[in-house]
Amino acid sequence: MYGSEERSRIIAESAGFVALIAAGSWVSIPFVPVPLTLQTFFVLLSGAVMKRWAVVPAALYLLLGLLGLPIFHNGTAGIGVLMGPTGGFIVGFIAAALVAGLAYERDAEIVRIAGLAAASIAIYLFGVSWLAYSTGMGLVAATLVGMVPFLPGDAVKTAAAYIVARRLA
Length: 169
Fold this sequence. Notes:
single chain; about 170 residues; Arp2/3 complex 21 kDa subunit ARPC3
């Protein structure tokens, strides 16, 4: 007698994606106020691979960072990171994983592409909103600082996640 293969797969993939998201946080190009990392690439890829279950590694990543493991960008950790200007982007990973995952439960390629784009937008919605609130800057200024400079890089990461996911299927 053995346990559920589906549960075992979810646990193994979750562990792998938590590790990949954490490793992606170390690939950091310094930028103000939010560093450009590969975390979002692995969050999007987790949605493509794990479908709706991608919320598990995203939530575990957040929880482990809150508990003090240095897995956020540049080896930071703790509640202070989430309360700082980048916190909303990290919280947005959970919503992004769910959005991408739900899109990948459909077979239509256009839905999957739109889901990855919507997942990136979800990260921006959480991130820019929190950036504006936590710093006191206006929403337009927060958008100009926390989103606009990252659009080209995030477009490349979104396209890469789509291409890699197609190869994994």
